[in-house]
Design goal:
By secondary structure, this protein is mainly α. Helix 1 packs antiparallel against helix 2. The longest helix is centred in the N-terminal third of the chain and has 14 residues. Belongs to the eukaryotic RPC9 RNA polymerase subunit family. It is found in: Cell membrane; Nucleus.
């Protein structure tokens, strides 16, 4: 989100030829401002990734958890392939606890 906002700021200063890039950047930033990532910092993301290292998740699974932090067992099942085989119930609860600690839910 920070990268896109910087891109948006610099694109606004450039010529019309980059209008479609500016539109995509604006729409993406506008969308992200209504998601949980607006409250995430580089440090909180690093802390989260360090905390979930022990679960041996794929890069894609980690990315999805950062973008849409799972708050229920079902959300973890949707993110983690073969989660029943790869994660115990205790692991799932631990991930949810880590998410809630590092990425507190935003009020909607």
């Amino acid at each position: 989100m920070q990268i896109l906002q910087q891109l948006k700021d610099s694109t606004q200063k450039k010529h019309k030829r980059e209008g479609s890039l500016a539109t995509v950047t604006y729409e993406t930033v506008h969308y992200l401002q209504d998601t949980e990532c607006k409250n995430q910092s580089e440090q909180s993301i690093q802390k989260f990734l360090e905390a979930i290292k022990k679960f041996k998740l794929t890069k894609m699974e980690k990315l999805m958890m950062v973008n849409t932090p799972p708050r229920t067992e079902l959300e973890i099942q949707l993110i983690v392939q073969e989660s029943e085989e790869r994660l115990s119930e205790e692991d799932v609860r631990s991930i949810i606890d880590i998410v809630n600690e590092i990425f507190p839910a935003i009020a909607t």
